[in-house]
Amino acid sequence: MSYLQIEKLKIGYGENIVLHDIHLAVEKGEMIALLGPSGCGKTTLLNALCGFIPVKSGAIAINGRDITHSTPEQRNITMVFQSYALWPHFTVAQNIGYGLKVRRWKKEAIAVRVQELLKIVNLENYADFKVTALSGGQRQRVALARALAIEPDVLVLDEPLSNLDAKVRLNVRHEIKALQKKLGFTSLIVTHDQQEALVMADRIAVLNNGRIEQLGTPEDIYHRPATPFVADFMGADNCLHHGDEPGKTLFFRSSDVTIFPSLSTPQRAGLLLDGVVEESAFLGHQYRHSVRCNGQVLLADSTQFWPARTPVILQVPEAALHVFATP
Ligand SMILES: Nc1ncnc2c1ncn2[C@@H]1O[C@H](COP(=O)(O)OP(=O)(O)OP(=O)(O)O)[C@@H](O)[C@H]1O
Ligand SMILES: [Mg+2]
Which listed ligand is nearest to 52 at the C-alpha? Predict the structure, then answer.
């Protein structure tokens, strides 16, 4: 049995069932990212794990102990919120020590533990600052330290980085990952950002229609999507319905396409398509071309600019093609 075991979980609000049949087994020290479209039930799953909303059926167990119907206080699970949810009138140290105070730790013991955490999240010089005097990235580190203070069995993070600007986000992403490896906490993190999930998680669960469509390593999910939904969600932005193979739908990324001039003879490997460039967008590091092939517009990236109306050949290597039976 795994450390965190979720079985046949069904959760909803009144008659509206949001999650139908969630199975998830998480090993100790593992970080799982939950990915899925808005409204698919990611936050609902985290809330149910924390005991904030009841489950309709199924079971949750940690370390062999059934917690399906335990109160939030009886579970040793803490949540880090997108909004940080810090106490604005408290100092950094008071915020971090809050959960320990609630648990009636002695003042001296709290001070020691808070000091430890300040060091862990690199905020040693900020203990007496009001949290309102901190930047977004620093606040999120306080929230993380507060959640870790009680040494939770499982840490859940609901889009913890989405309030941060792009650059800070990249830093905090790596900081959290490094901490997780160092401290070995077990965690579930919800994110909208597929890159974030790929970088941070040991395994990724892709949710759709109230079910986990695929659970696998970042490499599995990225290179071997199990369903058209996962392929599409993970950025295979081209979908070809009537390729060479009847009854098959092909998904592939615009970044995996190579553009050749028409009448050239690219090495015959993978998929070859004749087309005409319709338009191009400058993305900074490259151009994204819209190419009309056989009545369908496909996207192809290239560092080279191909002007509109240029006849071209698109080539996609075999390994970059995700093939599914057309429904
Ligand atoms: N308190 C609530 N009462 C009733 N329905 C709710 C409640 N909270 C969420 N829902 C419904 O449950 C579904 C899943 O919501 P949830 O917040 O879990 O989605 P999510 O995957 O976290 O979305 P997002 O990525 O936008 O945060 C939605 O259709 C939503 O309308
Ligand atoms: Mg949510």
Answer: 1
The alpha carbon of 285 is separated from its chain's Cα centroid by a whole number of angstroms, namely: 24
Domain ends where: 149, 184, 204? 149
Q: What is the pTM of this model?
A: 0.90
DSSP secondary structure string for all residues of 90-106: SBHHHHHHHHHHHTT--
Cβ of residue 42 lying under 6 Å from some atom of ligand 1: yes
Count of structural domains, the chain: 3
CA of 39 to the centre of ligand 1 (A): 5
pLDDT digits (tens, 9 = 90+) for 70-81: 999 899 999 998
Residues bordering ligand 2, an ion, CB closer than 5 Å: 43
Indicate whether residue 156 lines ligand 1 (CB < 6 A): no
What letter does residue 130 receive in the DSSP assignment? B
User: What's the pLDDT score for residue 81?
Assistant: 87
Report whether residue 303 contacts ligand 1, using a CB cutoff of 6 Å. Answer: no
pLDDT value, residue 155: 94
User: In the block, which residue shows the tokens 């087309």?
Assistant: 275
Alpha-carbon span 233 to 267, nearest angstrom: 30
178 or 228: which leads in pLDDT: 228
Is the domain of 71 the same as that of 189?
Answer: yes
pLDDT in tens, 33-46: 999 999 999 999 99
Q: What is the mean pLDDT of residues 27-38?
A: 95
Asked whether 15 lines ligand 1 (CB < 6 A), one says no
Do 166 and 276 share a structural domain?
Answer: no
Residue 81 lies in a domain: no
